[in-house]
Description:
A: little secondary structure; B: mainly alpha; two-stranded antiparallel sheet; 4 helices; globular
Amino acid sequence: NHGFSMESPRFSSSTPSRKKNPFLDDDLADVQPSPINPFSAYFDKSEAPQSN
Amino acid sequence: PPGVVPIDSPWAVKPEEKLKYDAIFDSLSPVNGMLSGEKVKPVLLNSKLPVDVLGRVWELSDIDRDGMLDRDEFAVAMYLVYRALEKEPVPMSLPAPLVPPSKRKKPAV
Lengths: 52, 109
């Protein structure tokens, strides 16, 4: 079956990079913050822990 | 010529910072030396920076645009987030000294 041209690339090279940006990707919109927080030192002094 | 950064100029990420960022990188269980956005995003969210700022950080640090961060790219991301927490604006394009030496291209001659 030679009905399909093999010339077109499987993935368009014009795919916007935003597709791969996890911060702009709706699929990852529900990601929860990680328990790994290398920035906690920036908040310890200015923000009380939330007990609720 | 102006605009060309010597390939051996020092990286903006200092060795002691790199050690710290590498430790975080390793704690995120990289696969084949790469971290996916799914793993990086939750950590960067802890910075409490706006998502559009973090999105820009990602754009700048995913230097080869493969949707993953390797050890050096992750260090760039961490560097930018820490600078943002120090109230320094995230640049619109990656400053040449921030390009990891492993990613620098030899100038075309």
